[in-house]
Design goal:
By secondary structure, the protein is of the alpha+beta class. It contains 4 helices and 9 strands, in the order βαβαβββαβαβββ. This is GNAT family N-acetyltransferase.
Length: 203
């Protein structure tokens, strides 16, 4: 990959569509299951991260917004896309039993060759801005509630936890054992858990 014409200042996102599924599948499985980059989970989980069918379901879900950072021939937004996806992130709008809405952020990935250059910060900030605007523009009962952003990370990833804590996320005490159902990869530790992080933002 030629990184000379790529920088965090050139990052832009658009909503994913069906034509992106193959490139997204390659990016997510590379970033999560292979050993390249610092964000991978290869030492903790084996198998694939996601399938084309799961991506299609996400793209077609009206409450789930999947955004991609596409590679272009010049690195600029208006240039022709090459078909490769350099980053992605999803925002899933959820409603709890009390009709309170929150945004779950997931499928966050940046191509390993671009990690450590600030690209991920730009992608995450864009997703957070979208989620906050979406939540705060929605009537949420008679009182406006702070926008709640949540995400889950694997236990035994202190460097990843520290990254999100620097971005204002905190552990909220919710955790579940890593699902061992064959649909989420194969855990390599019996004590592996998913830890929930939360960030609250007011208008």
């Amino acid at each position: 990959m030629n990184k000379s014409n790529l920088s965090k200042d050139a990052v832009f996102l658009r909503q994913a569509d069906a034509s992106d599924i193959g490139a997204l599948e390659r990016l997510l499985n590379c970033c999560y299951r292979e050993t390249a980059g610092w964000t991978n989970e290869a030492d903790l989980v084996g198998g694939i991260r996601i399938t084309a069918e799961e991506l299609a379901s996400t793209i077609n879900n009206p409450t789930h917004y999947l955004f991609v950072y596409p590679k272009t021939t010049t690195g600029e937004r208006d240039a022709e896309e090459t078909g490769e996806i350099l980053g992605c992130i999803a925002v899933d709008i959820k409603t709890d039993a009390n009709s309170n809405k929150k945004a779950y952020i997931g499928m966050f990935a940046v191509h390993p060759e671009l990690q450590g250059q600030g690209v991920g910060n730009v992608v995450l900030q864009a997703a957070e801005t979208f989620a906050i605007r979406h939540l705060l523009s929605t009537e949420n009962g008679t009182d406006k509630q702070p926008a709640r952003l949540t995400m889950s990370i694997l236990s035994h990833r202190p460097e990843l936890l520290a990254y999100y804590q620097r971005r204002g996320y905190q552990l909220n005490g919710n955790k579940i054992p890593f699902p061992n159902d064959g649909n989420n990869g194969e855990p390599k530790r019996e004590d592996l858990e998913l830890l929930e992080l939360e960030k609250r933002v007011s208008a």
